[in-house]
Amino acid sequence: MPDFWKTSGYHLLELREDGLLGVTDDFLRAYFRRPELQLEPESCAAEQALNAALLENPRREVESGELAAIEDSDVRENYNVVLDFRDRLIAAGTVEACYLTLFQSNVGTTPPLFIDQMAHVILRRVLDGCDDTLQLRAAELFFRTQKVSLNEGAILMADEETIEMKRETGGLGNLGRFLIEMETSLDQVELDVLSARNAGSYWDRSDRYDMVYDASFGQPGLGSLCRVLEAWMIHLLGVETAIEPVREIQDERWVWHIGLDMVSSAILNDLYDGVEVDEDRTDRLIALFRLEFKGDVALRPEVGGRPVYLGLAMNDQNIVTLKPQNLLVNLPLAPAS
Questions:
Q1: Cα–Cα nearest to 265, from 329, 171, 190, 220
Q2: pLDDT, position 151
Q3: What is the rounded distance in angstroms from the CA atom of residue 298 to the CA atom of residue 229?
Q4: 3-state secondary structure labels for all residues of the chain
Q5: Are 228 and 222 in contact (CB under 8 A)?
Q6: Is this prediction's pTM over 0.90?
Q7: pLDDT value of residue 124
Q8: What's the start-to-end Cα distance of the chain, in Å?
Q9: Which residues pair with 287 in a beta bridge?
């Protein structure tokens, strides 16, 4: 099976017998090699000493005086943030436990970038051995924002950062205007829409994030996203579900819903509460799903055997920012006794 997402940090981690990702020194070291902590010619002696010490032993305790001795206040703050995250990883022992703990308690100073990176490497573990590149592309939504193009009924998503890079470098020539105004469809520019025809090309370019994802209803893309959502919950919560796309919610006994992003959360809340939602907002709902629990899962009494509805929406800039943690913290699971 070809390798993929080589930049995720997966190969720096220990695959434990329980299937979880054990935190290693090499994984911790990678954070002390981040650009924000790279030494500069003007770096003071205290900064140089701390940098060398942490690369030698990334688990070492850092005294407050060591940080106070660093002359650059921005560098001091960067170290505080990274050290806080490092301590969370060490205390948790696995990336999965660290991720769950963040949302069960308090994210604190953990940057969204680090949260996305954890989702990235966890999904690399979850999808290890997967030969469906459409699932891999769908999984990118969990840790990378997407720009949406609506074209003749098709819902196409391209990686926002990749689009910006191509716009800034002029990589798309005159068609770069599309990247600002979205006046033409994604498949008319130099970005390939992932399909059965070119699925094999994903492997060599998985770290480039330059293939377009078709999230249109009735197309295989939404089904692939459902499979990733199911696998995500099995790995992190041990909860087995069956998820399928739906065109709309027609359920007089609608009892529970989860927005996979801030926009869909607000829209679904209003629809559930009977608040009138104008067409401009409902048009931003680009996907709806029905989730049913499988097996013996302890649920809140008010849910019983009813399905849970999921929503995915874009903001007024046509950006989708999926928050996979929403599934983990908002499922109607019965409180642990």
A1: 329
A2: 83
A3: 19
A4: CCCCCHHHCHHHCEECCCCCEECCHHHHHHHHCCHHHCCCCCCCHHHHHHHHHHHHCCCCCCCHHHHHCCCCHHHHHHHHHHHHHHHHHHHHCEHHHHHHHHHHCCCCCCCHHHHHHHHHHHHHHHCCCCCCHHHHHHHHHHCCCEEEEEECCEEEEEEHHHHHHHHHHCCCHHHHHHHHHCCCCHHHCCCEECCCCCHHHHHHHCCCCCEEEECCCCCHHHHHHHHHHHHHHHHHHCCCEEEEEECCCCCCCCCCEEECCHHHHHHHHHHHHCCCCCHHHHCCEEEEEEEEECCCCCECCCCCCCCEEEEEECCCCCEECCCCHHHHHHCCECCCC
A5: no
A6: yes
A7: 99
A8: 42
A9: 312
Return the residue matching tokens 């990235």: 120
The two tokens of residue 318 are 């046509």
Report yes or no: 151 and 191 within 8 Å, Cβ to Cβ: no
* Selection from 276, 257, 260 nearest residue 268 by Cα: 257
In Å, how far from its chain's centre is CA 48?
A: 34
In which band, very low, low, confident or very high, does the pLDDT at 336 lie, cut at 50, 70 and 90? Answer: confident
336: number of Cβ within 10 Å = 5
Copy the structure tokens of residue 115: 């949260």
Contact criterion met (CB below 8 Å) for 274 and 223: no
What count of other Cβ atoms lies within 10 Å of the Cβ of residue 287?
23
Q: Supply the mean pLDDT for the chain.
A: 92
pLDDT at res. 189: 47
The one-letter amino acid at 227: R
Q: Is the confidence at residue 232, as pLDDT, over 70? A: yes
